[in-house]
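Entry: Formate hydrogenlyase
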Amino acid sequence: MKIMKKSQKPMNTLERQKKIERRAKRAFALFACMVLSMAVMIVPAFAADDPLQIVENLSEFIFSLIRAIGLILLGFGILQLGLSLKSHDPSQRANGMLTIAGGIVITFTKEILTLITGG
């Protein structure tokens, strides 16, 4: 016989059935999420013959992500500068200028690195 706390009432069959149904629903939801996530994450791999081509493709992808982040920062800096001109806030104007400068540098990172390395 199980030892129960005094505040706990014994569960009748209807409560047990509901508890089992809730557990089954949770287990099914977890299983469905796992199957769906595995189906979504399957990606066909198209491998190139040349290993240098793979590295070049990865490099292009990373630099395109960096360029997108730089353009977002550039747009935010322009927005911040415009709002500072409207509100006559010099500290926000300085932050806007710095954000614009950072966005330009991040946007043209690949070209800057190409100029530095000479190739």
